[in-house]
């Protein structure tokens, strides 16, 4: 029976999951592991160089079939095909969401308005390649003929987080002699700190903006242009120092960027999904185009897995459904990303935008308010640092925040016994979250320390760790362009699947517009020293403070 089209919480598959959750409420994961020694093998998936262990979840043999039944009832297979084939699934902007076309095989045929877009994607990659080679080969120089040594990428949101995260994730592969810096914020500190580190004659600015109308990016680009002028560059010289990646070539031209230095973006790519396009230029310039192409290949391997693997063996689908399981049936409203890889320290930031801007929605695709929870708060950080900070809350707090542990089997920096120690820490955390410590165990421990009975009574409750806290562990051999590409694509598809279940448009972001709209008159009033009498007293009071009134 298909129940596609009926409101989500009325679907029998949803009701079946509710009943299943009720039946599992008192089951502790400790018991599940004790009763099934095969749990690790049973609940694990390998794909595109990644291995997912999802055995430390509140699931038994019935859970995945029930969750995948919900996915089918929500039309997931058709929705997936619609995304890959270029249907305008972004229905509020009437556009496809074709980030997968950016990494599709060269001979693919993916049509937008009847036209195959793959040749243009491939031509842009070739243009990027020759540009990168000309920079690396010293053919493109600064206005005094110097080799370009520093790239300053100016962009924010999706035009910043992805490239920054990837260049950091693959830092061991970075080329000698070229440094990449990022400026995103309108806080003057951001650009000032970067400009202090670079020289005008050897710096190339990349203006990264799909719209070429983002306030922060334009203001920082204008400031960079002025800085070059102040340092002796003529208007003609500026052409040596600016490149734009944008879907708004006219605005880039107006800014003074030459046509041959403007790389295209397309409205069928969302900003937070755009690192695979020319927005990835900082990646290609830092790591080389061969590594950039390998990154795309890794993402493509994950795309193929996602598109073709059965739902129950499908890594992004399983991770997405487990997320739905906790958000909608166990009351979780956050999800934790714990990267046990220093180079992946920016991954939580990228995933925050990817997931929270995609699924932080309150109405469904048809504009009806939802009566179920949607995207959780995504947060996280790097292990083991977090263990000495916020893991306390994960272990004993009242919040349920399922965690993804992400760790390579091998380190790029295999010093002393560090990687084994890091790995042990990672395993100990997921084990502690799963098994916890019972009151009996806490009491025995205290008694073994020789404490008197009243002290044992007093301290035991503080030492109890409830456990039964869910986590996934994602491992891969060593961070490579392919594994990192696959990892990021995995989370993109996880986000997409959840959007399908929740019947959201995961590809618009109207919520961010209001702040931009309100910001304009506030800035004008701050500059002009006028306060709108109709303003709320908080905003008016703070404006007066800023102006020193
Ligand atoms: O690339 P741009 O057009 O400059 O946009 C940069 C970012 O700003 C916007 O406010 C959106 O919320 C983001 O999705 C976008 O990635």
Total of DSSP H or I helical runs spanning 4+ residues: 21
Main sheet characteristics: 6 strands, mixed
- Name the hetero compounds present: 6-O-phosphono-alpha-D-glucopyranose
In the predicted model, the low-confidence regions spanning at least 5 consecutive residues are: none
GO molecular function, one term: isomerase activity
Subcellular location: Cytoplasm
Pfam families: PGI (PF00342)
EC number: 5.3.1.9
Explained architecture:
The chain is an alpha/beta fold. The protein has 21 helices and 13 strands. The protein has helices at residues 12-24, 29-35, 39-42, 63-73, 76-85, 118-136, 161-169, 188-195, 215-230, 249-255, 281-287, 289-308, 315-329, 347-359, 391-396, 418-435, 439-448, 453-463, 481-501, 513-528, 537-546, and strands spanning 44-47, 50-53, 111-112, 115-116, 150-154, 179-183, 203-208, 242-246, 262-264, 334-339, 377-382, 403-408, 471-476. It has a six-stranded mixed sheet, sandwiched between helices. Strand 3 (111-112) and strand 4 form a beta hairpin. The chain is globular. 6-O-phosphono-alpha-D-glucopyranose binds at residues 156-159, 209-211, 214, 217, 271-272, 357, 509, 512.
């Amino acid at each position: 029976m298909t129940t596609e089209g009926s409101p989500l919480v009325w679907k029998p598959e949803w009701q079946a999951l509710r009943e299943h959750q009720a039946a599992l409420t008192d089951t502790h994961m400790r018991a599940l592991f004790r009763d099934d020694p095969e749990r690790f093998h049973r609940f694990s998936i390998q794909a595109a160089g990644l291995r997912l262990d999802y055995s430390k979840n509140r699931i038994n043999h019935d859970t995945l079939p029930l969750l995948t039944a919900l996915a089918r009832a929500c039309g997931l297979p058709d929705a997936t095909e619609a995304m890959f084939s270029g249907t305008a699934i972004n229905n509020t902007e009437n556009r496809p969401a074709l980030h997968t076309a950016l990494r599709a095989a060269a001979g693919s045929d993916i049509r937008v308005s009847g036209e195959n877009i793959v040749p243009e994607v491939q031509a842009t990659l070739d243009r990027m390649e020759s540009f990168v080679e000309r920079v690396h080969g010293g053919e493109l120089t600064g206005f005094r003929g110097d080799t370009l040594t520093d790239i300053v990428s100016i962009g924010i949101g999706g035009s910043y987080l992805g490239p920054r995260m990837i260049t950091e994730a693959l830092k061991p592969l970075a080329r000698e002699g070229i440094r990449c810096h990022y400026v995103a914020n309108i806080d003057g500190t951001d650009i000032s700190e970067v400009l202090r580190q670079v020289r005008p004659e050897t710096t190339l600015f990349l203006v990264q903006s799909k719209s070429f109308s983002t306030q922060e990016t334009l203001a920082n680009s204008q400031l960079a242009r002025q800085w070059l002028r102040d340092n002796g560059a003529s208007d003609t010289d500026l052409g040596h120092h600016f490149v734009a990646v944008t879907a708004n070539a006219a605005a880039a031209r107006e800014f003074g960027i030459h046509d041959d230095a403007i790389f295209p973006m397309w409205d069928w790519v969302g900003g937070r999904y755009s690192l695979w396009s020319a927005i990835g230029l900082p990646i290609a310039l830092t790591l080389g185009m061969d590594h950039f192409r390998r990154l795309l290949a890794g993402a493509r391997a994950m795309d193929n897995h996602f598109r073709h693997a059965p739902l129950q063996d499908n890594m992004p689908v399983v991770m997405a459904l487990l997320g739905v399981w906790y958000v909608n049936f166990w009351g979780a409203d956050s999800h934790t990303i714990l990267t046990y890889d220093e180079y992946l320290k920016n991954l939580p930031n990228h995933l925050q935008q990817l997931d929270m801007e995609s699924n932080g929605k309150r109405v469904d695709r048809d504009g009806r308010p939802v009566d179920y929870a949607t995207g959780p708060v995504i947060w996280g950080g790097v292990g083991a640092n977090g263990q000495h900070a916020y893991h306390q809350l994960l272990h004993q707090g009242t919040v349920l925040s399922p965690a993804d542990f992400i760790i390579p089997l091998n380190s790029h920096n295999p010093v002393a016994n560090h990687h084994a120690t890091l790995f042990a820490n990672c395993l100990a955390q997921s084990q502690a979250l799963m098994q916890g410590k019972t009151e009996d165990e806490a009491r025995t421990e205290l008694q073994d320390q020789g404490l008197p009975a009243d002290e044992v009574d007093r301290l035991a409750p503080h030492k109890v760790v409830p456990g039964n806290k869910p986590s996934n562990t994602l491992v891969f051999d060593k961070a490579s362009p392919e594994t990192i590409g696959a990892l990021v694509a995995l989370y993109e598809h996880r986000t997409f699947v959840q959007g399908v279940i929740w019947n959201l448009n995961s590809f618009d972001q109207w919520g961010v517009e209001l702040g931009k709209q309100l910001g304009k008159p506030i800035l004008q009033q701050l500059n002009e020293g006028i306060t709108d009498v109709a303003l709320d007293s908080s905003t008016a009071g703070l404006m007066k403070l800023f102006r020193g009134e």
